[in-house]
Design goal:
CATH topology of the largest domain in chain A: Rossmann fold
Number of domains of chain A: 2
CATH architecture of the largest domain in chain A: 3-Layer(aba) Sandwich
Largest sheet of chain A: 6 strands, mixed
Helix content of chain B: over 70%
Strand content of chain A: 15-25%
Order of helices and strands of chain A: HEHEEHEHEEHEHEHEHEHEHHHEEEEE
Number of domains of chain B: 1
CATH topology of chain B: ABC transporter involved in vitamin B12 uptake, BtuC
Largest interface: A-B, 33 and 37 residues
Order of helices and strands of chain B: HHHHHEEEHHHHEHHH
Strand order of the largest sheet of chain A: 2-3-1-4-5-6
Distance between the termini of chain B: 42 Å
Number of helices of chain A: 12
Radius of gyration of chain A: 24 Å
Distance between the termini of chain A: 77 Å
Structural class of chain B: mainly alpha
CATH class of the largest domain in chain A: Alpha Beta
Number of strands of chain B: 4
CATH architecture of chain B: Orthogonal Bundle
Strand order of the largest sheet of chain B: 1-4
Radius of gyration of chain B: 19 Å
Oligomer: heterodimer
Number of helices of chain B: 12
Largest sheet of chain B: 2 strands, antiparallel
Shape of chain A: elongated
Structural class of chain A: alpha/beta
Chain lengths: ~400, ~300
């Protein structure tokens, strides 16, 4: 009798082990590769993007993962590669990713990388004469306007700075009709700052402001006295600074020294980050910046906490990476992507088709529209630096 | 050019000259190492900024006043200087001029990446003294913090010159610089002199890094490469191995940089500074104090 018990127990245990083995064999993973700057002075962008991708992947995995084309459930695994904010490096990284069985990549950080990288992709789908890379890429950070139209394989989930500053200047016109003149400060050697300054300037003029001058500096400049003196002489009502935190703070500190006190300060989207407050919270007090992320909705608060757990900070750029993971899950399920080594090219085409077909996605601040040229129309709000933190100043109705 | 333009021009030059004290300090470091070892240490500016970053660590422990942070930067600079010698020079064949050049390029990138990885590239606030002091002088004004940087820079230069010309260590340093083999035969340890040179220039570099941080109000890894370039320009214009030349060249480069910024804008500013470098290389390769006929 005792021998029979042991035999039955062994049989049950064996069956259970076999069943668990089968489950393990069926538990699949889908690797999503992100890439961006994880070295150099923009390293923090890469850290934040990686943390956001991992936080979103964990969130999706906890909820059961992603359903593949054959009905199996898979967990997301994130890999993040460094492109050093260098165009050649970015191209090399993507070629490396494309040589694996990856069917999509998320990145890059820098607009100069995105511009070159999108250029090596096939321009028009199905163009047999174009030997460009047929691999879908969706950008989370690179913010320079209009980049996705370079190739039908390139997509972006970045906010439209044109729309943001158009809305901001229109709003300022209603709130501060007494302000008539504006002066610009621009980081001349950084593609994003330079391009956005053009947007700011055009929108200021479109809303009746007189541009009374502009000062220019470089990303690594150490003195701003001459530029700020020019600003002081112009005596503008509004000063707009299109620069990243290091020189934004340098310029703001010099403005304080020279007693330049405009009635209103406007900053670059990328400066609505913790770095600006770490560098010059006192001098940045009051600066208004449009942004597509602030922890103002339950989803956004949750995302912010989750990203922090992975050692990053949620801002308008990393929040885009977080949203992208949910977009990818949706497309994988809609397009029945198999994620198998023998279906790689088919999966890439399906992913491209799925991303191109999206009309609307769920964002952390609300619904995100998609344009025919593969860009996002994201909800945004205006924040201002107040008492050492970013606080919501106004949420436009549309 | 109207009266206001004239005022602004002079003011720009004055600001630049004051800020140029940091270039002068960096130039001294480059030139001293070249003078003693006949080697260019390309990691010097990065090490200086690195030392300034290290000095910020004290603020995590205690709420130290700015002067203590500067002192920490000087000490850290000395330690980093010794480390640079150990890694970039001690075990590298000195007979091959390219070997140490390459090793210091490697160290520059290494120090830069260490800073980037430690801080994620985020700019950090750096304390300053007299940052809220503005000294009015008629239509002009001088920044208190830059005047402090300038005065401290001058004090460092004087101390360094005293060290070089009034101490036994200075005598040994100059002896090794001029006749290394004869010095060794006289019982001077070349290795000891080299180490001390790196430590002393490291201390000066630490102060330069701290003063740069104080003048800008922030530290960023972005500073390493531009300051390396400025340090090299100052060293060439001042004359390789010439300390008074480095001092004057630092102030001149600072002043001219701001002048060209004012007159020609940011896109052309560096062009003129580079042009100045070539003018010196061609017409006065021995530097600002050398005889004009110093060419081959």
């Amino acid at each position: 009798m005792r021998k029979l018990d042991i035999a039955i127990a062994a049989l049950v245990a064996g069956t259970a082990l076999a069943a668990s083995g089968a489950t393990l064999a069926q538990e699949r993973t889908v690797k999503i590769t992100g890439f961006g700057a994880k070295s150099g002075v923009v390293r923090v962008f890469g850290i934040n993007s990686e943390a956001a991708l991992k936080a979103a992947a964990e969130e999706i995995n906890k909820a059961g993962g992603v359903t593949l084309g054959d009905g199996t459930k898979a967990k997301f695994v994130i890999e993040f590669l460094d492109d050093r904010c260098n165009a050649e490096e970015g191209i090399s990284v993507v070629r490396r990713i494309a040589s694996t069985d990856a069917f999509v990549a998320v990145g890059p950080t820098c607009s100069n990388v995105a511009e070159s990288l999108f250029g090596i992709l096939q321009k028009k789908v199905g163009d047999a004469s174009d030997s460009g890379l047929q691999f879908p890429i969706i950008a989370d950070v690179a913010a320079k306007g209009g980049l996705a139209k370079i190739s039908e394989w390139s997509f972006r989930n970045v906010p439209s700075e044109f729309e943001m500053y158009k809305s901001l200047f229109a709003w300022l016109k209603t709130q501060h009709p007494d302000l008539k003149t504006i002066y610009g400060g621009v980081e001349k050697d950084f593609a994003h700052s330079n391009a956005t300054f053009g947007v700011m300037k055009a929108q200021a003029e479109a809303n009746g402001l007189q541009v009374v001058g502009q000062s220019e500096w470089l990303l690594a400049d150490t003195t701003f006295s001459t530029q700020i003196r020019e600003m002081k002489r112009a005596n503008p009502d509004i000063v707009t600074i299109s620069a990243h935190p290091f020189t934004t703070c340098g310029a703001l500190k010099e403005m304080e020294r020279q007693g330049v006190k405009p009635k209103l300060l406007i900053g670059l989207t990328s400066s609505s980050s913790i770095e600006t407050l770490q560098g010059c919270a006192k001098q940045a007090e009051g600066i208004i910046i449009p942004t597509s992320f602030a922890p103002v909705t339950p989803e956004a608060k949750k995302a912010s906490d989750n990203v922090a757990k992975f050692g990053g900070s949620a801002d308008l750029h990393s929040a885009a990476a977080y949203e992208i993971m949910f977009i990818l899950k949706e497309v994988i399920e809609q397009q029945k992507i198999m994620a198998k080594p023998d279906t790689v090219q088919e999966d890439r085409s399906k992913m491209r088709q799925g991303l191109a077909a999206l009309k609307e996605t769920d964002g952390l601040l609300g619904k995100v529209g998609r344009t025919p040229d593969r860009e996002a129309i994201k909800p945004f709000l205006y924040v201002h630096a107040k008492d050492g933190s970013w606080q919501v100043l106004h949420k436009p109705s549309s | 050019m109207d009266f206001l333009d004239l005022i602004d021009t002079i003011q720009s030059i004055a600001d630049g000259v004051l800020f140029g004290a940091t270039y002068a300090l960096l130039g001294i470091g480059f030139t001293l190492i070249f003078g003693v070892m006949h080697k260019i240490n390309l990691s010097y500016a990065a090490a200086s900024i690195g030392a300034a970053y290290v000095s910020l660590m004290i603020l995590f422990v205690i709420k130290a006043p700015a002067i203590v942070v500067f002192l920490m930067a000087a000490l850290a600079g000395g330690a980093v200087g010794g480390f640079v010698y150990l890694v970039g020079f001690k075990f590298i064949p000195l007979a091959n001029p390219l070997a140490t050049l390459m090793s210091t390029v490697g160290l520059l990138l290494l120090i830069d990446e260490i800073i980037v990885h430690t801080t994620a590239g985020v700019p950090l606030n750096y304390p300053a003294l007299f940052s809220d002091v503005i000294v009015p002088m008629g239509p002009f004004s001088l920044r208190g913090d830059l005047m402090f940087v300038f005065i401290l820079g001058c004090v460092c230069m004087v101390l360094l010159l005293l060290l070089l010309y009034r101490t036994r260590l200075g005598l040994a340093t100059r002896a090794v610089s001029q006749q290394p083999i004869a010095s060794e035969l006289c019982g001077i340890s070349i290795t000891r002199v080299n180490v001390l040179t790196f430590v002393i220039t490291g201390i000066v570099g630490g102060i330069a890094g701290a003063m740069t941080g104080a003048a800008i109000g922030m530290l960023s890894p972005l500073l390493s490469i531009p300051l390396t370039v400025k340090g090299l320009i100052v060293t060439v214009i001042g004359g390789l191995g010439n300390i008074p030349g480095a001092i004057i060249a630092g102030l001149v480069v600072g002043g001219l940089e701001n002048l060209f910024q004012f007159l020609r804008g940011v896109s052309e500013r560096d062009l003129y500074i580079m042009l100045l470098l070539f003018v010196f290389l061609v017409f006065r390769p021995g530097g600002i104090f050398a005889a004009p006929g110093g060419r081959d």
